[in-house]
Amino acid sequence: MLFSLLVGAALIIGVMILGNWLMRSPPGSLKRRLGGGLIPLLLVIVAGLALTGRLGLALATLAAMAPWVMRGMQMWQAGRMIRDLFTRRRPDEGPGIPPAPPGARMSREEALRVLGLPEGSGEAEIHAAYRRLMSQLHPDKGGTDWMAAKLNEARDRLLGGK
Predict the structure, then answer these.
(1) What pLDDT score does 31 carry?
(2) Is residue 75 included in any domain, yes or no?
């Protein structure tokens, strides 16, 4: 029993590290990396588990923990996205938009960044981006009140209170 829990925890950590590594790698090198290292390693692990009779147990443990892994990855990605919005910018973004002082109204540029929209986005695009982000960051789904308030403020700023 303890062995199964340790294997499951190791698999979860491994999947999260692998997911982070894959998200950060450039798209062109992804195919080369997968074919050159990950797939053979995965085949060796599966063969080792099959030869020792633990493949079924490992797959069952992985399947049982998959919902937790997926939820954790969603929360991790949402947290990184919010952190990136307010703490740093991507190298290709050019000059950053400083956050508004406390109590000040959100600028249009900041509202676009919060919703991840380009300049000139229409009302339908604003609503779609707001709904997509709110479905991930709502307090009932693991987000915080602060995140939801920022999304509401960004939507209201871009739509002019409609």
Answers:
(1) 63
(2) no
Spatial CB neighbours of 85, under 8 Å, sequence gap ≥ 6: 113, 114
Helix (H) or strand (E) holding 40: helix 39-52
Task: Give the CB-side neighbour count of residue 6, counting CA atoms within 13 A.
Answer: 3
Q: With the C-alpha atoms ordered 86, 88, 94, 98, is the resulting torsion angle positive or negative? A: positive
For 41-50, what is each residue's pLDDT tens digit? 778 888 888 8
What residue has token string 């099959």? 50
User: Cα–Cα distance between 57 and 49 in angstroms, integer?
Assistant: 9
Entry pTM: 0.40
Say which residue the tokens 């992804």 belong to: 30
Tell me, yes or no, whether 77 lies in a domain: no
**Domain range for residue 12?**
2-65
Q: What is the CATH number of the domain that holds 123?
A: 1.10.287.110
Identify whether residues 101 and 144 lie together within a single domain.
yes
The letter for the amino acid at 147 is: M
Residue with token string 């229409």? 122
| Overall number of domains in the chain | 2
Interacting residues of 73 by C-beta distance below 8 A, sequence separation 6+:
16, 19
